[in-house]
Amino acid sequence: MRNSTLLTLDPLSKNDKDLWVEIYTDQVTMCHIGPALSKEKAIELFEKAIARNNNLRYTIRRNHDNERVGMIGLKKIPDKASVYELGVMIHSDYSNKGYAYKATQLLLTLAFKQLSAQSIVTYCNINNQGANRISSALGFIAKGIVKAQHSQQSSNQWEMTIEQYNASYWRHKTIENR
Predict the structure, then answer these.
(1) pLDDT (tens digit, 9 = 90+) per residue, 59-83?
(2) Of 44, 86, 89, 129, which sits 20 to 30 A from 148 (CA to CA)?
């Protein structure tokens, strides 16, 4: 569990099925990722995620009321030493409130400090101004535009190396106070 004064990242568990289904079936949330899934497909995807027992997927929980507002995770990129892909999804009811920014800060700290990541990449739909703004504000470097494999949507590819993380302005502030 990673936490700040605002949020806590809890490992994804069987108790998060409803949140998962809500997010993956929500047209507004999914518009920047790909088509919204049917409830059946979302449940199938959730059950596969739980079966994989990937301990790098988290729910994002607000501390003041314990409300789960989204999900965030890391995926090891095969054949690349210490490189991970970061993904974050905030439920449409809670978007534009700073949760993605804060949760990403927490996960970057986990990746670089505990997992000894050398590089983190993330992909943001070119039309998702909020996600692209967050990536830039956190210190990710734009690497170009790519087509997402699963949806064929154009996405900005962003990357942050350990050196960029160590130099980032927000890392030198107390994360607890942001």
Answers:
(1) 999 999 999 999 999 999 988 889 9
(2) 44
